[in-house]
Write a structure and sequence with these properties.
binds uridine-5'-diphosphate-glucose; alpha/beta; 44% helix
Amino acid sequence: MADNNNIIMFPFMAQGHIIPFLALSLQLEQKGYQITFINTPLNLANLRRVLPPTSAIRLLEVPFNSSDHGLPPNSENTDSLPPYQIYDLLVASTSLKPAFRNILSGLVDAGAPPLCVVADFFFGWSAAVSHEFDIFHVIFSGSGGFGLACYFSSWINLPHKNSDSGEFTLPDFPEAGKLQVTQLTPSLVAATGDDPWSKFQKQNLPAWGNSDGFLFNTVEELDKVGLSYFRRKFNLPVWAIGPINLSANGGAQTGKNGRIETETCLQFLNSKSPSSVLYISFGSQNTITASQMMQLAQALDKSKKNFIWVVRPPLGFDINTKFRAEEWLPENFKEQIEEEHRGLIVEKWAPQVEILSHQSVGAFMSHCGWNSVLESLSRGVPLLGWPMAAEQFYNAKMMVEIAEVCVEVARGINFEVRSEDLRETIEQVMSENGKGKEMRKKALNIKKIIEDATRNEEGFKGSSVEAMEDFLQAALMMNTTTTTTTIDL
Ligand SMILES: O=c1ccn([C@@H]2O[C@H](COP(=O)(O)OP(=O)(O)O[C@H]3O[C@H](CO)[C@@H](O)[C@H](O)[C@H]3O)[C@@H](O)[C@H]2O)c(=O)[nH]1
């Protein structure tokens, strides 16, 4: 291994980004690399509390004061912001550039240039900064190839602008099939090419081409279509190294659920028969509207299925306040399901990986955030998709049309959900026959594909293992070349 085995990790300030970066850091640390994790003070303070005691990851702060950017005080993470201010945090994050440059410059001046920088896809600018110091730079996407390809192409081409029917294809990604305007986020629907979001994307997305390659938290065999988009678009190496997850890497906890909650969930699951429980959760920051919540509760009531439901105050209410079951759920709903021992309502945050790993879980109603998708598929659990934001719509599309392990039950926060439709789909997906059985079988096939991708045995290396080795080799080569050039000069 080269002397400078220090890898800089630099995620955007959102749990859905920090978590996969932390998981990748722990994996690389186990391989003997030194990790420097850069982020803003509050995010690092949170991280410090959840790092496994054995980890020597160095946490390096970049100064950030949210109030300077028109954000509420102490808002350094999307999880403490309402959806309409996430854009402001994105724009504010570009102010980290000088501090990031100083860090790299300091390391280079000290004669300890890092082996490489692994940065977020929202930090396209970090590629050019890294190259100022001849540092190898890759973009790490916690999203899958297919989802990010649709996201990238939609923003670059704004193809819905030319569609009267509300249906369109992506001009440079026809393999994705037909998309509908309802699968775009409000910012994308409203984009004119000249609005603030478009301006941010016009700077950020093409800057990816300055990087030396892409790392994806995905599996080659599962996500070929999306990965091939980036290969032909940028003509850069694309390494599918997933799934990268926390549970496999030293067991760091994201710190939001306590041991008692974990035990309660596991006790509940232990008391149920295999594949009989529906797990419902919409990721680290999403919630649904009050009326959608009511309809979902009614559907659960009528279906008589067992469930664990992670609830947060509905849209329009402060997500960090206490959940008011008596107001937001049907009368006596909570008492009744507890009495029948049929359902568990968990506030805010549940031990998702532990839950999905339990044999009693039969399906996962999810917003299709990519981490959730991978966590579900890695355990052979089929999905009920309820995409809400970002590239979740495309992840759901991929799961429905390509992987065939998902039924989409709702789309976005404006979708009028009906309890009867929900009940029907829940019963269909959780059924032991027909479509439910078919989906479970396909999900189990994908579980096997994912297991194979991460297998590293004598005589066999899975695709994700090989991709990780190739990436590290490429970083080393670049460093060797740089060092040689420096000596020659
Ligand atoms: O109660 C909960 C809720 C979430 N999680 C964990 O939190 C993560 C959530 O990640 P994900 O499912 O990807 O959802 P988001 O947090 O919404 O993810 C953001 O980041 C993802 C990866 O880039 C994108 O795919 C999403 O669109 C984007 O919203 C997962 O590891 C979950 O296991 C829990 O442990 N308990």
